[in-house]
Amino acid sequence: xxxxxxxxxxxxxxxxxxxxxxxxxxxxxxxxxxxxxxxxxxxxxxxxxxxxxxxxxxxxxxxxxxxxxxxxxxxxxxxxxxxxxxxxxxxxxxxxxxxxxxxxxxxxxxxxxxxxxxxxxxxxxxxxxxxxxxxxxxxxxxxxxxxxxxxxxxxxxxxxxxxxxxxxxxxxxxxxxxxxxxxxxxxxxxxxxxxxxxxxxxxxxxxxxxxxxxxxxxxxxxxxxxxxxxxxxxxxxxxxxxxxxxxxxx
Amino acid sequence: xxxxxxxxxxxxxxxxxxxxxxxxxxxxxxxxxxxxxxxxxxxxxxxxxxxxxxxxxxxxxxxxxxxxxxxxxxxxxxxxxxxxxxxxxxxxxxxxxxxxxxxxxxxxxxxxxxxxxxxxxxxxxxxxxxxxxxxxxxxxxxxxxxxxxxxxxxxxxxxxxxxxxxxxxxxxxxxxxxxxxxxxxxxxxxxxxxxxxxxxxxxxxxxxxxxxxxxxxxxxxxxxxxxxxxxxxxxxxxxxxxxxxxxxxxxxxxxxxxxxxxxxxxx
Lengths: 250, 267
What we know:
The complex is a heterodimer.
Chain A: E1 4-15, E2 18-29, E3 33-37, H1 44-51, E4 59-64, E5 67-68, E6 78-79, H2 91-95, H3 97-101, H4 106-114, H5 135-149, E7 153-157, H6 165-182, E8 185-190, H7 193-199, E9 202-206, E10 213-218, H8 233-247
Parallel strand pairs in A: 3-8, 3-9, 6-7, 7-8
Antiparallel strand pairs in A: 1-2, 1-4, 4-5, 9-10
Helix pairs in contact in A: 7-8
Chain B: H1 2-29, H2 41-50, H3 52-86, H4 88-101, H5 106-117, H6 121-145, H7 149-157, H8 162-198, H9 205-214, H10 218-246
Helix pairs in contact in B: 2-10, 3-4, 3-6, 3-8, 3-9, 5-6, 6-8, 7-8, 8-9, 8-10, 9-10
Protein name (chain B): ABC-type nitrate/sulfonate/bicarbonate transport system, permease component
InterPro entries (chain B): MetI-like (IPR000515), MetI-like_sf (IPR035906)
Domain ABC transmembrane type-1 (chain B): 59-240
Protein backbone atom coordinates (compact mmCIF):
# COMPACT_ATOMS: atom_id res chain seq x y z
CA UNK A 1 0.00 0.00 0.00
CA UNK A 2 1.40 3.35 -1.03
CA UNK A 3 1.51 6.20 1.43
CA UNK A 4 -1.02 9.01 1.25
CA UNK A 5 0.68 12.19 0.03
CA UNK A 6 -2.24 14.57 0.08
CA UNK A 7 -5.51 14.31 1.94
CA UNK A 8 -8.31 16.81 1.60
CA UNK A 9 -10.72 16.36 4.48
CA UNK A 10 -14.31 17.62 4.45
CA UNK A 11 -13.54 20.99 2.89
CA UNK A 12 -16.34 23.52 2.96
CA UNK A 13 -16.17 27.00 1.45
CA UNK A 14 -18.83 29.60 0.83
CA UNK A 15 -18.47 33.06 -0.64
CA UNK A 16 -21.07 35.61 0.46
CA UNK A 17 -24.42 34.17 -0.73
CA UNK A 18 -22.59 31.58 -2.81
CA UNK A 19 -21.95 28.17 -1.25
CA UNK A 20 -19.15 26.81 -3.42
CA UNK A 21 -17.67 23.64 -1.93
CA UNK A 22 -19.60 21.28 0.33
CA UNK A 23 -17.70 18.64 2.23
CA UNK A 24 -15.18 17.80 -0.45
CA UNK A 25 -12.79 15.01 0.49
CA UNK A 26 -10.17 13.43 -1.69
CA UNK A 27 -6.93 11.54 -1.45
CA UNK A 28 -3.76 11.34 -3.47
CA UNK A 29 -1.19 8.61 -2.87
CA UNK A 30 2.48 8.54 -3.72
CA UNK A 31 3.17 8.47 -7.49
CA UNK A 32 -0.53 8.47 -8.17
CA UNK A 33 -2.34 10.46 -10.85
CA UNK A 34 -5.73 11.69 -9.71
CA UNK A 35 -8.15 13.90 -11.61
CA UNK A 36 -10.93 16.17 -10.44
CA UNK A 37 -13.58 16.34 -13.13
CA UNK A 38 -16.36 18.87 -12.96
CA UNK A 39 -18.50 21.24 -14.99
CA UNK A 40 -17.09 24.75 -15.56
CA UNK A 41 -17.65 27.13 -12.70
CA UNK A 42 -18.24 24.39 -10.14
CA UNK A 43 -15.52 25.63 -7.80
CA UNK A 44 -12.64 23.41 -8.93
CA UNK A 45 -10.22 26.31 -8.95
CA UNK A 46 -11.35 27.41 -5.49
CA UNK A 47 -10.52 23.90 -4.31
CA UNK A 48 -7.02 24.27 -5.75
CA UNK A 49 -6.52 27.66 -4.13
CA UNK A 50 -7.37 26.04 -0.82
CA UNK A 51 -4.98 23.12 -1.39
CA UNK A 52 -2.21 25.57 -2.36
CA UNK A 53 -2.95 27.50 0.83
CA UNK A 54 -3.89 30.73 -0.96
CA UNK A 55 -7.41 30.64 0.47
CA UNK A 56 -8.70 29.32 3.77
CA UNK A 57 -11.65 26.93 3.88
CA UNK A 58 -14.63 27.63 6.17
CA UNK A 59 -14.28 24.11 7.52
CA UNK A 60 -12.13 21.06 6.88
CA UNK A 61 -8.40 20.60 6.50
CA UNK A 62 -5.66 19.93 4.00
CA UNK A 63 -3.01 17.39 5.01
CA UNK A 64 0.24 16.83 3.20
CA UNK A 65 2.34 13.89 4.43
CA UNK A 66 0.04 13.84 7.45
CA UNK A 67 0.78 17.49 8.34
CA UNK A 68 -1.90 20.15 8.22
CA UNK A 69 -1.09 22.93 5.73
CA UNK A 70 -4.59 24.43 5.77
CA UNK A 71 -4.49 28.12 4.76
CA UNK A 72 -0.70 28.22 4.59
CA UNK A 73 0.93 28.76 1.19
CA UNK A 74 4.42 27.63 0.34
CA UNK A 75 4.12 23.83 0.35
CA UNK A 76 2.74 23.02 -3.12
CA UNK A 77 2.65 25.19 -6.21
CA UNK A 78 0.21 24.92 -9.04
CA UNK A 79 0.10 25.29 -12.78
CA UNK A 80 -2.60 27.11 -14.67
CA UNK A 81 -4.13 27.24 -18.09
CA UNK A 82 -2.15 30.46 -18.37
CA UNK A 83 1.56 29.69 -18.24
CA UNK A 84 2.21 32.72 -15.98
CA UNK A 85 5.87 32.83 -17.01
CA UNK A 86 7.67 36.09 -16.29
CA UNK A 87 8.08 37.82 -19.68
CA UNK A 88 11.26 39.57 -18.50
CA UNK A 89 13.13 36.41 -17.54
CA UNK A 90 14.70 33.74 -19.72
CA UNK A 91 13.14 30.29 -19.82
CA UNK A 92 15.96 28.97 -17.64
CA UNK A 93 15.43 31.63 -14.98
CA UNK A 94 11.66 31.16 -15.16
CA UNK A 95 12.01 27.44 -14.51
CA UNK A 96 14.52 28.08 -11.71
CA UNK A 97 12.34 30.78 -10.11
CA UNK A 98 11.24 28.68 -7.11
CA UNK A 99 14.90 27.91 -6.35
CA UNK A 100 15.80 31.61 -6.50
CA UNK A 101 12.92 32.33 -4.12
CA UNK A 102 14.25 29.69 -1.72
CA UNK A 103 17.57 31.51 -1.67
CA UNK A 104 19.57 29.07 -3.79
CA UNK A 105 22.48 30.88 -5.47
CA UNK A 106 22.00 31.93 -9.09
CA UNK A 107 24.58 29.53 -10.47
CA UNK A 108 23.35 26.51 -8.57
CA UNK A 109 19.66 27.23 -9.25
CA UNK A 110 20.32 27.47 -12.98
CA UNK A 111 22.37 24.29 -12.93
CA UNK A 112 19.67 22.34 -11.10
CA UNK A 113 16.94 23.58 -13.46
CA UNK A 114 19.11 22.91 -16.49
CA UNK A 115 19.31 19.18 -15.67
CA UNK A 116 15.63 18.77 -16.54
CA UNK A 117 15.62 20.77 -19.76
CA UNK A 118 16.08 17.73 -21.95
CA UNK A 119 13.30 15.74 -20.26
CA UNK A 120 10.96 18.70 -20.57
CA UNK A 121 11.74 19.20 -24.26
CA UNK A 122 13.30 22.59 -23.66
CA UNK A 123 16.97 21.84 -24.37
CA UNK A 124 18.59 24.59 -26.44
CA UNK A 125 16.01 27.19 -25.48
CA UNK A 126 17.44 28.13 -22.06
CA UNK A 127 18.14 31.73 -23.00
CA UNK A 128 14.94 32.43 -24.92
CA UNK A 129 12.29 34.72 -23.54
CA UNK A 130 8.81 33.20 -23.07
CA UNK A 131 7.38 35.34 -25.89
CA UNK A 132 9.79 33.61 -28.27
CA UNK A 133 8.36 30.13 -27.64
CA UNK A 134 5.16 28.35 -28.66
CA UNK A 135 2.29 27.73 -26.24
CA UNK A 136 3.21 24.07 -25.76
CA UNK A 137 6.80 24.89 -24.84
CA UNK A 138 5.69 27.60 -22.45
CA UNK A 139 3.38 25.14 -20.69
CA UNK A 140 6.23 22.65 -20.35
CA UNK A 141 8.41 25.38 -18.85
CA UNK A 142 5.59 26.23 -16.42
CA UNK A 143 5.34 22.56 -15.47
CA UNK A 144 9.07 22.38 -14.86
CA UNK A 145 8.81 25.43 -12.61
CA UNK A 146 5.96 23.79 -10.66
CA UNK A 147 7.98 20.59 -10.37
CA UNK A 148 11.10 22.38 -9.14
CA UNK A 149 9.05 24.00 -6.38
CA UNK A 150 7.51 20.80 -4.98
CA UNK A 151 8.92 17.70 -6.56
CA UNK A 152 6.49 15.30 -4.88
CA UNK A 153 3.12 16.91 -5.61
CA UNK A 154 1.99 18.75 -8.74
CA UNK A 155 -1.31 20.63 -8.86
CA UNK A 156 -2.39 21.13 -12.46
CA UNK A 157 -5.41 23.33 -13.14
CA UNK A 158 -6.56 22.65 -16.71
CA UNK A 159 -2.95 22.97 -17.86
CA UNK A 160 -3.67 22.28 -21.52
CA UNK A 161 -6.94 24.17 -21.81
CA UNK A 162 -5.40 26.97 -23.84
CA UNK A 163 -3.70 24.75 -26.41
CA UNK A 164 -4.96 23.55 -29.78
CA UNK A 165 -6.21 19.94 -30.05
CA UNK A 166 -3.06 18.54 -31.68
CA UNK A 167 -0.62 20.12 -29.24
CA UNK A 168 -2.92 19.18 -26.39
CA UNK A 169 -2.86 15.49 -27.25
CA UNK A 170 0.90 15.32 -27.59
CA UNK A 171 1.24 17.22 -24.31
CA UNK A 172 -1.01 14.72 -22.50
CA UNK A 173 1.05 11.89 -23.86
CA UNK A 174 4.26 13.58 -22.83
CA UNK A 175 2.92 14.48 -19.37
CA UNK A 176 2.06 10.84 -18.66
CA UNK A 177 5.58 9.71 -19.41
CA UNK A 178 7.33 12.52 -17.66
CA UNK A 179 5.30 12.12 -14.48
CA UNK A 180 6.14 8.42 -14.41
CA UNK A 181 9.80 9.21 -14.79
CA UNK A 182 9.73 11.88 -12.08
CA UNK A 183 7.67 9.68 -9.71
CA UNK A 184 5.55 12.69 -8.78
CA UNK A 185 2.00 12.61 -7.48
CA UNK A 186 -0.34 14.66 -9.62
CA UNK A 187 -3.70 16.21 -8.94
CA UNK A 188 -5.28 17.41 -12.19
CA UNK A 189 -8.33 19.61 -12.65
CA UNK A 190 -10.08 19.17 -15.97
CA UNK A 191 -13.48 19.19 -17.62
CA UNK A 192 -12.29 16.88 -20.37
CA UNK A 193 -13.52 13.32 -19.69
CA UNK A 194 -11.03 11.65 -22.05
CA UNK A 195 -8.12 13.55 -20.55
CA UNK A 196 -9.21 12.52 -17.04
CA UNK A 197 -9.58 8.80 -17.81
CA UNK A 198 -6.56 8.50 -20.01
CA UNK A 199 -4.15 10.06 -17.54
CA UNK A 200 -5.55 9.05 -14.16
CA UNK A 201 -5.58 6.23 -11.65
CA UNK A 202 -8.68 7.67 -10.04
CA UNK A 203 -11.26 10.29 -11.04
CA UNK A 204 -13.37 12.39 -8.69
CA UNK A 205 -16.52 13.66 -10.40
CA UNK A 206 -17.84 16.88 -8.89
CA UNK A 207 -21.39 18.19 -9.13
CA UNK A 208 -22.45 21.68 -10.09
CA UNK A 209 -22.10 24.50 -7.58
CA UNK A 210 -22.34 23.98 -4.64
CA UNK A 211 -19.93 21.17 -5.46
CA UNK A 212 -20.01 17.78 -3.80
CA UNK A 213 -18.13 14.64 -4.85
CA UNK A 214 -20.75 12.81 -6.94
CA UNK A 215 -18.71 9.77 -7.75
CA UNK A 216 -15.25 8.32 -7.31
CA UNK A 217 -14.17 6.17 -10.26
CA UNK A 218 -11.07 3.99 -10.09
CA UNK A 219 -9.35 3.60 -13.46
CA UNK A 220 -7.82 0.11 -13.54
CA UNK A 221 -6.30 0.48 -17.04
CA UNK A 222 -2.74 -0.83 -17.26
CA UNK A 223 0.24 1.44 -17.90
CA UNK A 224 1.93 2.36 -20.16
CA UNK A 225 -1.22 3.40 -21.93
CA UNK A 226 -1.33 3.79 -25.70
CA UNK A 227 -3.54 5.73 -28.06
CA UNK A 228 -5.46 2.60 -29.08
CA UNK A 229 -6.92 2.56 -25.58
CA UNK A 230 -9.61 4.94 -26.78
CA UNK A 231 -11.34 1.99 -28.48
CA UNK A 232 -10.80 -0.47 -25.59
CA UNK A 233 -14.01 -1.92 -24.09
CA UNK A 234 -13.05 -1.18 -20.46
CA UNK A 235 -12.21 2.38 -21.44
CA UNK A 236 -15.55 2.88 -23.15
CA UNK A 237 -17.43 1.43 -20.18
CA UNK A 238 -15.59 3.77 -17.81
CA UNK A 239 -16.29 6.72 -20.04
CA UNK A 240 -20.01 5.84 -20.13
CA UNK A 241 -20.16 5.62 -16.34
CA UNK A 242 -18.55 9.03 -15.94
CA UNK A 243 -20.45 10.72 -18.74
CA UNK A 244 -23.71 9.41 -17.32
CA UNK A 245 -22.90 10.94 -13.95
CA UNK A 246 -21.40 14.07 -15.48
CA UNK A 247 -24.12 14.88 -17.98
CA UNK A 248 -26.90 14.93 -15.47
CA UNK A 249 -24.94 17.80 -13.96
CA UNK A 250 -24.30 19.97 -17.00
CA UNK B 1 7.35 48.57 -52.30
CA UNK B 2 7.76 48.12 -48.56
CA UNK B 3 11.08 49.93 -48.69
CA UNK B 4 9.49 52.84 -50.52
CA UNK B 5 6.82 53.10 -47.81
CA UNK B 6 9.54 53.18 -45.14
CA UNK B 7 11.39 55.95 -46.91
CA UNK B 8 8.08 57.80 -47.23
CA UNK B 9 7.56 57.53 -43.47
CA UNK B 10 10.62 59.63 -42.85
CA UNK B 11 10.76 61.71 -46.02
CA UNK B 12 7.20 63.06 -45.94
CA UNK B 13 7.38 64.85 -42.57
CA UNK B 14 10.83 66.18 -43.51
CA UNK B 15 9.46 67.46 -46.82
CA UNK B 16 6.51 69.14 -45.08
CA UNK B 17 8.85 70.74 -42.53
CA UNK B 18 11.14 71.91 -45.31
CA UNK B 19 8.27 73.54 -47.19
CA UNK B 20 7.12 75.32 -44.04
CA UNK B 21 10.64 76.66 -43.41
CA UNK B 22 10.81 77.82 -47.04
CA UNK B 23 7.52 79.67 -46.68
CA UNK B 24 8.70 81.19 -43.40
CA UNK B 25 11.89 82.34 -45.09
CA UNK B 26 9.82 83.86 -47.91
CA UNK B 27 7.79 85.90 -45.38
CA UNK B 28 11.02 87.62 -44.36
CA UNK B 29 12.51 87.78 -47.85
CA UNK B 30 9.50 89.60 -49.35
CA UNK B 31 9.15 91.66 -46.15
CA UNK B 32 5.56 90.61 -45.51
CA UNK B 33 6.38 90.89 -41.81
CA UNK B 34 9.26 92.90 -40.28
CA UNK B 35 12.10 90.70 -38.95
CA UNK B 36 11.76 92.00 -35.38
CA UNK B 37 8.30 90.35 -35.29
CA UNK B 38 9.15 87.17 -37.19
CA UNK B 39 12.81 86.63 -38.01
CA UNK B 40 13.35 84.27 -40.97
CA UNK B 41 15.04 80.92 -40.28
CA UNK B 42 18.30 82.09 -41.84
CA UNK B 43 18.54 84.88 -39.27
CA UNK B 44 17.78 82.45 -36.45
CA UNK B 45 20.55 80.13 -37.64
CA UNK B 46 22.94 83.06 -37.82
CA UNK B 47 21.98 84.04 -34.27
CA UNK B 48 22.54 80.44 -33.15
CA UNK B 49 26.04 80.45 -34.64
CA UNK B 50 26.92 83.90 -33.32
CA UNK B 51 25.71 83.19 -29.77
CA UNK B 52 26.76 79.54 -29.58
CA UNK B 53 29.27 80.03 -26.77
CA UNK B 54 26.94 82.21 -24.74
CA UNK B 55 23.99 79.85 -25.30
CA UNK B 56 26.07 76.91 -24.13
CA UNK B 57 27.05 78.69 -20.90
CA UNK B 58 23.40 79.42 -20.10
CA UNK B 59 22.26 75.99 -21.23
CA UNK B 60 24.67 74.35 -18.79
CA UNK B 61 22.99 76.14 -15.89
CA UNK B 62 19.53 75.15 -17.13
CA UNK B 63 20.64 71.55 -17.66
CA UNK B 64 21.99 71.42 -14.10
CA UNK B 65 18.70 72.62 -12.61
CA UNK B 66 16.71 70.30 -14.88
CA UNK B 67 18.75 67.17 -14.22
CA UNK B 68 19.07 67.67 -10.45
CA UNK B 69 15.33 68.39 -10.21
CA UNK B 70 14.45 65.44 -12.45
CA UNK B 71 16.67 63.16 -10.39
CA UNK B 72 15.07 64.25 -7.12
CA UNK B 73 11.61 63.82 -8.68
CA UNK B 74 12.46 60.26 -9.78
CA UNK B 75 13.75 59.25 -6.34
CA UNK B 76 10.98 61.00 -4.38
CA UNK B 77 8.15 60.11 -6.78
CA UNK B 78 9.37 56.54 -7.13
CA UNK B 79 9.55 56.08 -3.36
CA UNK B 80 6.12 57.59 -2.85
CA UNK B 81 4.64 55.31 -5.54
CA UNK B 82 6.18 52.25 -3.87
CA UNK B 83 4.86 53.33 -0.48
CA UNK B 84 1.36 53.96 -1.83
CA UNK B 85 1.37 50.62 -3.63
CA UNK B 86 2.58 48.73 -0.59
CA UNK B 87 0.10 50.24 1.85
CA UNK B 88 -3.54 50.59 0.74
CA UNK B 89 -4.22 52.65 3.87
CA UNK B 90 -1.59 55.28 3.05
CA UNK B 91 -2.83 55.30 -0.53
CA UNK B 92 -6.38 56.06 0.58
CA UNK B 93 -5.13 58.92 2.75
CA UNK B 94 -2.67 60.54 0.33
CA UNK B 95 -3.99 59.86 -3.17
CA UNK B 96 -6.63 62.66 -3.21
CA UNK B 97 -3.98 65.20 -2.19
CA UNK B 98 -1.62 63.92 -4.83
CA UNK B 99 -4.25 64.53 -7.51
CA UNK B 100 -5.29 67.91 -6.08
CA UNK B 101 -1.68 69.09 -5.99
CA UNK B 102 -1.69 68.91 -9.77
CA UNK B 103 -4.31 71.62 -10.07
CA UNK B 104 -1.93 74.24 -8.60
CA UNK B 105 -0.60 76.30 -11.53
CA UNK B 106 3.15 76.00 -11.14
CA UNK B 107 3.85 79.26 -13.01
CA UNK B 108 2.23 81.14 -10.12
CA UNK B 109 4.41 79.33 -7.60
CA UNK B 110 7.62 80.53 -9.22
CA UNK B 111 7.50 84.12 -7.81
CA UNK B 112 6.68 82.71 -4.35
CA UNK B 113 9.68 80.40 -4.52
CA UNK B 114 11.86 83.39 -5.42
CA UNK B 115 10.57 85.18 -2.31
CA UNK B 116 11.29 82.21 -0.09
CA UNK B 117 14.47 80.82 -1.59
CA UNK B 118 16.06 83.74 -3.43
CA UNK B 119 17.37 83.78 -7.00
CA UNK B 120 19.88 80.94 -6.84
CA UNK B 121 19.61 77.42 -8.22
CA UNK B 122 17.35 76.08 -5.44
CA UNK B 123 13.98 77.62 -6.49
CA UNK B 124 14.60 76.46 -10.08
CA UNK B 125 15.30 72.92 -8.93
CA UNK B 126 12.13 72.94 -6.83
CA UNK B 127 10.01 74.01 -9.81
CA UNK B 128 11.46 71.14 -11.87
CA UNK B 129 10.77 68.71 -9.03
CA UNK B 130 7.14 69.86 -8.84
CA UNK B 131 6.67 69.57 -12.60
CA UNK B 132 8.27 66.12 -12.87
CA UNK B 133 7.06 64.56 -9.64
CA UNK B 134 3.48 63.80 -10.63
CA UNK B 135 4.00 61.92 -13.93
CA UNK B 136 6.71 59.77 -12.32
CA UNK B 137 4.57 58.89 -9.29
CA UNK B 138 1.36 58.18 -11.14
CA UNK B 139 2.96 56.16 -13.93
CA UNK B 140 4.86 53.92 -11.50
CA UNK B 141 1.77 53.54 -9.31
CA UNK B 142 -0.34 52.54 -12.32
CA UNK B 143 2.35 50.15 -13.49
CA UNK B 144 2.58 48.47 -10.10
CA UNK B 145 -1.21 48.12 -9.93
CA UNK B 146 -1.44 46.63 -13.43
CA UNK B 147 0.29 43.36 -12.47
CA UNK B 148 -1.72 40.19 -13.15
CA UNK B 149 -3.19 39.11 -9.79
CA UNK B 150 -2.75 35.44 -10.76
CA UNK B 151 0.98 36.05 -11.09
CA UNK B 152 1.02 37.44 -7.54
CA UNK B 153 -0.96 34.39 -6.35
CA UNK B 154 1.56 32.11 -8.02
CA UNK B 155 4.41 33.91 -6.24
CA UNK B 156 2.54 33.57 -2.94
CA UNK B 157 1.96 29.86 -3.52
CA UNK B 158 5.72 29.49 -3.93
CA UNK B 159 6.24 31.23 -0.60
CA UNK B 160 7.65 34.50 -1.97
CA UNK B 161 8.25 37.30 0.54
CA UNK B 162 6.82 40.79 -0.18
CA UNK B 163 10.29 41.98 -1.23
CA UNK B 164 10.61 39.01 -3.64
CA UNK B 165 7.20 39.81 -5.13
CA UNK B 166 8.42 43.32 -5.95
CA UNK B 167 11.85 42.23 -7.10
CA UNK B 168 10.70 39.47 -9.47
CA UNK B 169 7.23 40.52 -10.56
CA UNK B 170 5.90 43.95 -9.66
CA UNK B 171 8.87 46.17 -10.48
CA UNK B 172 9.69 44.63 -13.88
CA UNK B 173 5.99 44.60 -14.77
CA UNK B 174 5.76 48.30 -13.92
CA UNK B 175 8.72 49.33 -16.10
CA UNK B 176 6.85 50.08 -19.36
CA UNK B 177 4.41 52.38 -17.59
CA UNK B 178 7.21 53.92 -15.52
CA UNK B 179 9.20 54.77 -18.64
CA UNK B 180 6.13 56.32 -20.25
CA UNK B 181 5.98 58.65 -17.24
CA UNK B 182 9.72 59.32 -17.38
CA UNK B 183 9.45 60.42 -21.01
CA UNK B 184 6.73 62.92 -20.12
CA UNK B 185 8.48 64.38 -17.09
CA UNK B 186 11.90 64.26 -18.77
CA UNK B 187 10.76 66.57 -21.55
CA UNK B 188 8.99 68.79 -18.99
CA UNK B 189 12.14 69.06 -16.90
CA UNK B 190 13.90 71.49 -19.29
CA UNK B 191 10.74 73.56 -19.63
CA UNK B 192 10.31 73.59 -15.85
CA UNK B 193 13.83 74.90 -15.36
CA UNK B 194 13.27 77.65 -17.96
CA UNK B 195 10.04 78.74 -16.21
CA UNK B 196 11.94 78.83 -12.93
CA UNK B 197 14.58 81.04 -14.51
CA UNK B 198 12.03 83.56 -15.75
CA UNK B 199 11.61 84.89 -12.24
CA UNK B 200 15.19 86.04 -12.22
CA UNK B 201 18.75 85.00 -11.62
CA UNK B 202 22.09 85.51 -13.26
CA UNK B 203 22.40 82.56 -15.60
CA UNK B 204 20.22 80.10 -17.46
CA UNK B 205 18.35 79.91 -20.77
CA UNK B 206 15.24 81.47 -19.20
CA UNK B 207 17.22 84.44 -17.90
CA UNK B 208 18.96 84.87 -21.24
CA UNK B 209 15.65 84.64 -23.08
CA UNK B 210 14.18 87.51 -21.02
CA UNK B 211 17.24 89.64 -21.70
CA UNK B 212 17.24 89.23 -25.47
CA UNK B 213 13.45 89.72 -25.61
CA UNK B 214 13.72 93.01 -23.75
CA UNK B 215 16.19 94.21 -26.36
CA UNK B 216 13.83 93.09 -29.18
CA UNK B 217 16.44 90.65 -30.54
CA UNK B 218 13.68 88.31 -31.76
CA UNK B 219 16.08 86.18 -33.79
CA UNK B 220 18.00 85.42 -30.59
CA UNK B 221 14.75 84.57 -28.76
CA UNK B 222 14.06 82.01 -31.49
CA UNK B 223 17.60 80.72 -31.17
CA UNK B 224 16.95 80.04 -27.46
CA UNK B 225 13.72 78.24 -28.32
CA UNK B 226 15.62 76.04 -30.78
CA UNK B 227 18.12 75.18 -28.03
CA UNK B 228 15.33 74.35 -25.54
CA UNK B 229 13.63 72.08 -28.08
CA UNK B 230 16.94 70.39 -28.94
CA UNK B 231 17.73 69.77 -25.25
CA UNK B 232 14.25 68.34 -24.59
CA UNK B 233 14.59 65.97 -27.55
CA UNK B 234 18.02 64.97 -26.29
CA UNK B 235 16.58 64.09 -22.88
CA UNK B 236 13.78 62.12 -24.55
CA UNK B 237 16.24 60.16 -26.69
CA UNK B 238 18.36 59.40 -23.65
CA UNK B 239 15.34 58.00 -21.80
CA UNK B 240 14.34 55.93 -24.84
CA UNK B 241 17.83 54.50 -24.99
CA UNK B 242 17.67 53.61 -21.29
CA UNK B 243 14.25 52.07 -21.85
CA UNK B 244 15.59 49.70 -24.49
CA UNK B 245 18.53 48.79 -22.23
CA UNK B 246 16.27 48.19 -19.22
CA UNK B 247 13.74 46.00 -21.03
CA UNK B 248 15.61 43.69 -23.40
CA UNK B 249 12.65 41.29 -23.45
CA UNK B 250 10.50 43.77 -25.35
CA UNK B 251 10.79 43.57 -29.14
CA UNK B 252 11.65 39.87 -28.93
CA UNK B 253 8.21 38.51 -29.81
CA UNK B 254 8.15 36.59 -33.07
CA UNK B 255 5.15 35.82 -35.30
CA UNK B 256 3.23 32.87 -33.81
CA UNK B 257 3.74 30.49 -36.73
CA UNK B 258 7.52 30.76 -36.50
CA UNK B 259 7.72 29.87 -32.80
CA UNK B 260 9.76 26.74 -32.08
CA UNK B 261 7.96 23.69 -30.70
CA UNK B 262 11.02 22.04 -29.19
CA UNK B 263 11.70 18.32 -29.07
CA UNK B 264 9.38 16.05 -27.13
CA UNK B 265 10.12 12.37 -27.15
CA UNK B 266 6.80 10.67 -27.67
CA UNK B 267 6.85 6.92 -28.01
